[in-house]
Amino acid sequence: MTALFTKGGASGLREAERPPANLLFMLALSLFLSIVSIYGAQASVFEQARMTLLDRFAPVLNVFSVPVRFVGNTFSSVGDVFTAMEENERLREENEQLRIWMHQSMALEQRLAEYEAILEPKTVEAKRYIPAQVIAENGGPFSRALVLSAGTKDGIRSGNAVVDGAGLIGHVVSAGKNASRVLLLTDANSHIPVYIEAVDTEGLLSGTAERTAEIKQFAGRPKGALEVGMRIVTSGTGGALPRGLPVGEIVRLTEDGVEVGLYASDQGAHLVRVVDYTFPDPSLIPDEGDELDIEGAGEAAAALETAAANG
């Protein structure tokens, strides 16, 4: 009995001496919070000290940063200088090339003036430009046409060329007193003689009714291979339009001709110019069947020379 009592009593004492788990947790949490607060206080002290030192040494740092910025700006400026030197060299080469072209152009212009002084050609000049507003599209029997807000009272007549800022857009096919109708180059009924400058060849530009135009008929064999990008202007053949109006350029070679990209866009056109050209008097131009009296002209010239010598 005594042994049993003694054993049970020792076990009870040991259980009484063991601390509860909640107490251990609370002690650990208190220790952790104490460490955190001490570290935070130290961190705050360190931060304040760091800011104090920064405030004290800010002027010194500013002084030392000046040469650093100067060196950095110097290197940047040196890089800009080299870039500017390369750009200047490129511009110098371009200016030299432009100067060469300018001298060549001036020489050709002078030579052309000398030839014109000798030949005295009768050039076709624009008499006047008549501004007109587009008031309707697809007017009349044509699928690709424009109606303008100007007519005969403004000086417009049938056959006048119609241009915009890029080039020829069409020509007047009928003119009333207050309005006129323009047949566009893209209409299937449009056929105008044109000239391909690079190969010295004339052809007939026809519309396709699909906002494009093409050349399938040529006046003779082209003097060279047709290529994309070749410039096309009016030829002046037939006397309907003057020679040299910009039309477009070759954009595609086809089996039976070329497709032409027009300079002027008839889509969304609002304001155009009708050009009235002054052509030579047809009565002064001899017909193909007429024979020129060259012998009589020679005799008249000889008589004038004799009279001048005797005078």
TrEMBL record:
Keywords: Cell shape, Membrane, Transmembrane, Transmembrane helix. One of its GO terms (cellular component) is plasma membrane. Residues 134-257 form the Rod shape-determining protein MreC beta-barrel core domain. The keyword Transmembrane helix applies. It comes from the Bacteria. GO terms for biological process: regulation of cell shape. InterPro entries: Cell/Rod_1, Cell/Rod_MreC_2, MreC, MreC_beta-barrel_core. The chain crosses the membrane at residues 21-41. Belongs to the MreC family. This is Cell shape-determining protein MreC.
